Structures are given as C-alpha cells and as structure tokens.
C-alpha cells in the first residue's frame, strides 16, 4: 500500500542538475508537507559545458544543508539512498538514465517531469524536438519512471497552444511554468490515491528526440527547405546554434544564424544573395530572410549590415 502524506511529511530525494531543475527543487523546499532528504546531481565534470564547478542544484542543496551526491554511477549510492528512507523520488532534467536498482529503492517510485505531451518527443531534447516538428499544441507530462526511457505511466498532463513561430526561450518558460504548477498537486494526489497512473496513449505513435551535439548546428542549405531551417534556427538558438558556410568577398567564412523569417514559398536555385539590402537565402523549397547573423569573432549584426560589407554567397 502506498504511504499517504497524512500526519507526516513526504520524504523526497530529488534528482536534477541545471538551473531549471534548481527552480523545481526550490518549489519542493518551500512546501511544509515535504522534506527533501537528499539531492542527486551530475558531477561537475559531466556538467562542464556550462563552465560551472558545481551544478545549480548542487549549489542549492549545499545552501539548504541537504545531503547531496554526485555519483559517477547511481549504483554507488544505493546504500545511502536507502538510509535516507525516501518515500518517493522526483526527477527533472537530471541528465542520466536511472538503473533498475535505483528505481527499486523508492517505495512509490520516481516521478519525472517531461516537458512534452508523451508519448510524443520522448528522449533528451523534447523542447527542440517540439519546435522542429512544428507543434502548436504543446504541454508537459508528470509520469512515473520505468526502465524504458520516458515510457512510464502518466500521472498528469497539461497542454496549451502556442504560436507557430514561438522562440525557444519563450516556449521553455511556458513549459517550465506549467510543469511547476502541475508537480506538487500531482505528487500529493498520487500519494493519496486520488489519481491512478495511466499507460501512455499509444494510439499516438511515440516519437523520439535525440541527444543534440554541437556539430548538429553545422548545416548545408542544400539539404533542407526554408521551413526546416527556420525551425532549426529557433530550436537550436543559444546552443548549439546554426551555422552555414559562406564566401564573403570570396573569403571562406562560417555565418552563425541568430534570427531568420520565412520570406516566401518560392522555388529556385539554392543561393545566398542580397536584394534591396535584404539578405535572402533561397532553397529548393521556399526562401528565408536572414535578420540577424554573426561572423566568427564579430558581434551580431543585421542582414542589411552584412549586405553592406560586400559580395556574399554560399560556399
């Protein structure tokens, strides 16, 4: 029988790493009926791409004087987890797959926040995958973790519509807000038996996002459509970014694209050129205007600025 929160605090071990995870942890720390008895975060080496010595979650745990762990392998801390006697685990953007041994340590399992409408966009990059798919109905899922990645039963979902050209940061803020609003009420309802875990709706074919690498941002316009590139620039904004090879005054350069918009749906020869001081990129399907871009070691400038530099074309 599941333990309820009646007359006692729910003992939670939290798994997370980044700044967004720290916000979720902060929410849990502020609830009077919850005690966070331990925190598990990535090691500083695994989080090195942020150039931080420790993760934001580890920093918050230290400040709150909560036992925290940064194991290389989760099985290294199975004994310590058991000693903390958690009722349930909560995980958000931890960054590692949990082994069955860890899952079995929690009487009520581990609850995961996945910012997509599962079974859509399972995997490590649901935000980017949502933009690349052109979804305008988006949402977040609170689910129980099972050995199969993001395939566990659903406890709650929240969905809403967004503009087709929504930017990545704005989408992330909306999904994070929805997730924070949904988590604690769902946790309480789950532990008090007022909601029942429901298998994912497989009438929708599951889709999977991939682990994004820096080189995924190096693209060739010759293999894409205008719509695909416009979505890619929004999905990869910040990191890993999108870069195309160009010739600027006959000198090879790499141009980082920061903001583009669909100009029209014309078809034609694939080329980069200036027209009335507008920097345009023609695809086999569609044409985009480059609004903001950046040359290596230079500041972000407008397409007009680049047109004023000199002849520019695809390499």
Care to describe what's here?
- The protein is an alpha/beta fold.
- It has helices at residues 19-29, 56-63, 78-83, 100-103, 126-133, 168-191, 226-235, 303-309, and strands at residues 10-16, 34-40, 68-69, 88-92, 110-114, 137-144, 154-161, 242-248, 251-264, 271-275, 278-282, 287-294, 301-302, 312-314.
- A seven-stranded mixed beta sheet has the order 3-2-1-4-5-6-7, with helices on one face.
- Strand 2, helix 2 (56-63) and strand 3 (68-69) form a beta-alpha-beta unit.
- Helix 1 (19-29) packs parallel to helix 2 and helix 5 packs antiparallel against helix 7.
- It is elongated and about 70 Å long.
- The model has no long low-confidence stretch (mean pLDDT 93).
Lay out the secondary structure.
Blueprint: E1 10-16, H1 19-29, E2 34-40, H2 56-63, E3 68-69, H3 78-83, E4 88-92, H4 100-103, E5 110-114, H5 126-133, E6 137-144, E7 154-161, H6 168-191, H7 226-235, E8 242-248, E9 251-264, E10 271-275, E11 278-282, E12 287-294, E13 301-302, H8 303-309, E14 312-314
Parallel strand pairs: 1-2, 1-4, 2-3, 4-5
Antiparallel strand pairs: 5-6, 6-7, 8-9, 8-14, 9-12, 10-11, 11-12, 12-13
Can you summarize this structure?
This protein has 315 residues and is an alpha/beta fold. The protein is 25% helix and 27% strand. The chain contains eight helices and 14 strands.
Which class of secondary structure composition applies to the elements? alpha/beta
- What's the total helix number? 8
Low-confidence stretches: none
Strand content: 25-35%
Topology as a string of helices (H) and strands (E): EHEHEHEHEHEEHHEEEEEEHE
| Cα shape | elongated
Average pLDDT metric: 93
| Spatial order of strands in the largest sheet | 3-2-1-4-5-6-7
Largest sheet: 7 strands, mixed
Distance between the termini: 65 Å
What is the number of E strands? 14
What fraction, in percent, of the residue positions are helical?
10-25%
Radius of gyration: 23 Å
